[in-house]
Amino acid sequence: MVKVLVAGFKGRMGNTTVQMVLEHEGFDLVGVFDPMASEKNLNENPAYSQTDVPVFTNLANIKTDAEVWIDFTRPTSVFENTKFALEHGISPVIGTTGMTDDQVKELQALAKEKQVGGLIAPNFGISAVLLMQFAKQAAKYLPDVEIIEMHHDNKLDAPSGTALNTAKMIAEVRKEHYQGNPDEKETLPGARGANYEGMRIHAVRLPGYVAHEQVLFGGKGEALTIRQDSFDRISFMSGVAVATEKIRNYSELMVGLENIL
Ligand SMILES: NC(=O)C1=CN([C@@H]2O[C@H](COP(=O)(O)OP(=O)(O)OC[C@H]3O[C@@H](n4cnc5c(N)ncnc54)[C@H](OP(=O)(O)O)[C@@H]3O)[C@@H](O)[C@H]2O)C=CC1
Ligand SMILES: O=C(O)C1=N[C@H](C(=O)O)C[C@H](O)C1
């Protein structure tokens, strides 16, 4: 049994993850974490009355034998949480987006020093992992590209971690070139979206949406659109489960679910 702690257990993703961990026969939920939680045990929530799982509310007071730390919290807390996990020999499986490149590098150095395996996955959904790989492949031949990501209107970070990672993967292969009209002017600031190495990223936030992305390529007289949709947060759970099962076999902190599939 893999002993698991879920950080952000009351959130949209954290709650879905708690259910997955409780239902998975190979996992044992040994703790949940949220600094704002008022309960002492998960069983105070009627939906989990049959469980016996301690609720932690302060990083400094966490005493746990957890082997894997699953994190779906906030862009402002994920760095400290991941650092705590690595420092305590707990393998982080991080879904929270919004860390800077410098923060990720610092955590990777710490994982190497501690020889602890971990994963940061901008997206645990297989459709998104495939979209990023297909987009990288297409960009070799169609270097003019724009990304549109669409999410629920409670999302904190923009652009999404998936969109940023898509742009980074494309940038690895895309021929450097100026895209669009060099004389273009935004008559309404922001109209052309964010700029990642010349690629435009547009973030849509609307009620009713969950998580969706389109990568649009344009060529002479032709276009290609690659799209993925997460209609339900269950779409992320098989990726989280695979990472939780496998991550202790590694001794570095990797970025991208594809590294362990
Ligand atoms: N990689 C992937 O496949 C996916 C990643 N995500 C990412 O996961 C993150 C969470 O998303 P979502 O569940 O929708 O967000 P929610 O806001 O629903 O959940 C976040 C939860 O974390 C709690 N929290 C805040 N600070 C801390 C902390 N320091 N430690 C522990 N818990 C804390 C929040 O409490 P409070 O509200 O009281 O602050 C809240 O309950 C986002 O960054 C999102 O982009 C989402 C879906 C898939
Ligand atoms: O906040 C979300 O919901 C999601 N966040 C991740 C991201 O920023 O890419 C993954 C997925 O898009 C859902």
UniProtKB/TrEMBL annotation:
GO terms for molecular function: 4-hydroxy-tetrahydrodipicolinate reductase; NAD binding; NADP binding; oxidoreductase activity, acting on CH or CH2 groups, NAD or NADP as acceptor. One of its GO terms (biological process) is diaminopimelate biosynthetic process. Pfam families: DapB_C, DapB_N. InterPro entries: DapB_C, DapB_N, DapB_N_CS, DHDPR_bac, NAD(P)-bd_dom_sf. Transmembrane segments: none annotated. Gene3D superfamilies: Dihydrodipicolinate Reductase, domain 2, NAD(P)-binding Rossmann-like Domain. It catalyses: (S)-2,3,4,5-tetrahydrodipicolinate + NADP(+) + H2O = (2S,4S)-4-hydroxy-2,3,4,5-tetrahydrodipicolinate + NADPH + H(+); (S)-2,3,4,5-tetrahydrodipicolinate + NAD(+) + H2O = (2S,4S)-4-hydroxy-2,3,4,5-tetrahydrodipicolinate + NADH + H(+). Keywords: Amino-acid biosynthesis, Cytoplasm, Diaminopimelate biosynthesis, Lysine biosynthesis, NAD, NADP, Oxidoreductase. One of its GO terms (cellular component) is cytosol. Residues 128-261 form the Dihydrodipicolinate reductase C-terminal domain. Homotetramer. This is 4-hydroxy-tetrahydrodipicolinate reductase. It comes from Ligilactobacillus agilis DSM 20509.
